[in-house]
Amino acid sequence: MSGQATTTALSSTVFGELADGTPVERWVLDDGTVRVAVLSYGGALHEITTPDRNDRRTDVSLGFDTLTGYLRPQPYLGALIGRYANRIAAGRFALNGRTYRLEANDGRNHLHGGSGGFDKRVWSAEPITDGVRLALTSPDGDQGYPARLDVTVEYTLGAGNLRIAYAATNAEREGGPDTIVNLTNHCYFNLAGHGAGPIGDHVIEVPADRYAPSDAELIPTGALADVTGTPLDLRVPRAFSDGWDAAFEQIANASGYDHSWLLDGVEPGRPVLAARVIHPDSGRVLEVMTDQPAIHVYSGNRMEHLPGAKGGQAYERRGGFCLETHHLPDSPNHPDFPSTVLAPRQTFRSTTTYRFGTT
């Protein structure tokens, strides 16, 4: 899956402008094997072009040709997610004796940081070795969250490996408010090509013994269940289509895979293999390494008809899958889950690497 280190070419252009004239940049990283494009709007991964086993190059990430596609309602294609990835039940959580109320933008629950989350921001961007660094400041009270948060995300590329390094600092003085942080990227992949249709023939492996069961609103129950004997046992590779319509309550609740698995052996700064996906026809392989405690697998079950996608495509239901590395959903409301609390002057750091190769 890996090779010799290479020097990554980097360039940028203006992708479009917001209504107020703010430019949105498109940064292209190319290591000679994989080409990646990142937008300053939402920090979105806009392109990931990789070779198949016959060296045919195809873009395997879902997205839009123009900025307009990202500005209209759409399911977070490629975006950076914050302040809190995934769901928070009833849009509220308690911290140090105070209850914080967030926007209910997913039924009665809070999803992906709210309607004004990090996916809707224009990040500042600057070149770094082999990549680009994005940055933004989220002020105290932003979307209902306490404390000012200073965030950077670095995308770097080399030897077919796309590395995402997250850092978020609670910028309040000592004695100021704690906050919660849960960051991820919401790229949709289709290893057959971004417009190739349903991903049922992709084979997925997640080497995890436990997952977080959820209710009909996709909120964790608070339990951590054994995957043995369920369609959520992905320790042995299986095609998405083998499990996403299984007669199992958890699958029925989510209309497919939309679950978080707790990873074993994870330590800060020491990534483990979280998932592997193979597309048998093309031979493309995607491996995900992370030091986050969980991975959330989403099989695009609720993705509706999306016209105007790249290359004139119209994406359909289950046309892509997401591998979101982050903490468990609704962690602030489950004290037994790994903590997402960040105290003043502390910095959250994490890395996730997407390794592209072939069989």
List the total number of helices. 3
Distance between the termini: 9 Å
As a whole number of angstroms, the C-alpha radius of gyration is 19 Å
Average pLDDT taken over every residue: 96
SS-derived structural category:
mainly beta
Secondary-structure element string: EEEEEHEEEEEEEEEEEEEEEHHEEEEEEE
Instruction: Please estimate the helix content.
Output: under 10%
Quantity of strands, as a count: 27
β-strand amount: 35-45%
Verbal overview:
The protein is mainly beta and 359 residues long. It contains three helices and 27 strands. It has a nine-stranded antiparallel sheet. β3 (35-39) and β4 form a beta hairpin.
SSE layout and pairing:
Elements: E1 9-17, E2 23-30, E3 35-39, E4 45-51, E5 57-59, H1 67-71, E6 80-81, E7 87-88, E8 92-95, E9 98-101, E10 110-111, E11 124-128, E12 131-138, E13 149-158, E14 161-170, E15 179-180, E16 184-185, E17 203-205, E18 210-211, E19 225-226, E20 238-239, H2 240-243, H3 249-254, E21 258-262, E22 272-279, E23 284-290, E24 294-298, E25 322-326, E26 341-342, E27 347-358
Antiparallel strand pairs: 1-2, 2-3, 3-4, 4-5, 6-16, 7-10, 8-9, 11-12, 12-13, 13-14, 14-27, 15-26, 17-20, 17-22, 18-19, 18-21, 21-24, 22-23, 23-27, 24-25
